Sequence to fold (551 residues):
Amino acid sequence: MNENMEMARLLFGDITAAPEDYEERYPARDLKEGAVVTRFAPSPTGFLHFGGLFAGFIGRIAASASNGIFYLRIEDTDKKREIENGAQMIIDGLKAFGINIDEGVISQTEEKGEYGPYTQSRRKEIYHSFVKRLVERGLAYPCFMTEEEIARIRKSQEEKKELTGIYGGYAKYRDITVEEAKRLIDEGREYVVRLKSPGKAGGRIRFKDMIKGEIEMDENVLDVVLLKKDGTPTYHFAHAADDHLMRTTHVIRGDEWISSVPIHLQLFKVCGFKPVKYAHISPIMKEENGGKRKLSKRKDPEAAVSYYEEQGYPRGAVWEYLMTLANSNYEEWRKCNKEEDINKFPFSFSKMSKAGALFDLAKLNDISKTYISTLTAEEVFDMTSKWAKEYDRELYGILTEDEEYALAIFAVERGGRKPRKDIAKWSDVKEYLAYFYSELWDKKRDFADNISSDEIIRILERYKEVYEPDGSADDWFPRVRELAVELGYAASPKEYKASPDEYKGHVGDVSGVIRAAVTGRRNTPDLYEIMQVLGGAETLKRIDEAIEIVK
Ligand code: GLU
Fold:
């Protein structure tokens, strides 16, 4: 038996399955040409934040747009950094945004799909089998260097301004004999398994990133660690083995990984794997004081994925917004395809921002308002109550106490050709409908500043006489107009503008007084509809109250 085979047997005596066994067990996927097989592969080391969610979203839409597969793999090789329920938080986070997975980890204990296990800590034999093969081929070796030795080397490399790490002459155990390895192991010395990098100093590699385009970098010369002392793989090695065996076509991840691509491509090569395509996403940016900076977990509440749920942004609206961040041509497409399912949008990596998409809360609000304006009253009621049940018990109680009344409120100016866009998120709803509920309304009346109290009383007294609780929508405004003219106001803003000296104001001022009396506000949806919902008795009561207040 040759030296390498012996070394492999020494290090991996317990490993019986060969890489070929796994190749057979995880066959090429039977998918259409061009189908994107991709994954979201977080480490369960902290909260899911917006950047991670965005990467997951891109994976989902890239797979959907190509009839491919999107799966969730949990990269839990760093047990020290793992947090309790880390995987569950990721699963819940994706779910909350409606980012469904086709395969992978579905709970702390369950997985679905034929290419698993999808949790790295459950794939140890697989990694060992592939590393064993590298050792057999003389492409990997055990390294017994101590932490102190490595630190010393690094320090001297830094002083000499050399590339830091274990490579070339620094790779003390590159050519270790089986005999020596056996002796050290018997002594109880710990070791890692390193790649014997075939890279040459001065060598360059070139690859095409799906988002960033052509990239040229130094070839990897480092003898990177494949297996750590406890036998767990490093991220570098594990992702290569996993992405290969899970038949991944595209690795979509944050661009902090670009610098590792030379290592990754080398690993694919030495292992004999077909390289994946990489799509490195630039960090989401925010505008600040005329400049740009990265969206920050510390400074920006919207960087936490919990923010969207807590504020009550509907999923569909967040998807619309994420799509605008993903592809700049999305909004144009949406304009031309108003009713179309969002999954029909032809997503493309090349239309993603190289500089980093700009996060804009005001835009999210606008998109969300438009989105909510297209929902039915029932949908708004259902979604708001579901949200309120969790985040605003008072609102929940009020809405569910009289469902019919709440539905009538949500139906105001909804469903027509130009629905109002007042609500951006469910946490806006309480303020939006406050004046419909005595528990929520402060009863203050915000009358326009340019009308005297006497005039307000005059308008309201007269309006009470002409008000018809059961009158039709078509009659309502003409009646207010007649009243306005009778009291010395112009019948339209236009007439008023033509000869302002002849009038006290125009019909809008009169309806404004009625609006403020009935709702307290200067701006509301259609006042006729509001009065219908409140009913005649309540409307009159409010007008009387208003008169008392201004008296
Ligand atoms: N586990 C890595 C991380 O959380 C994944 C990077 C990748 O998607 O390959 O950053």
In short: The CA atoms of residues 206 and 216 lie 4 Å apart. The chain has a mean pLDDT of 96. The radius of gyration is 33 Å. The longest strand covers residues 204-209.
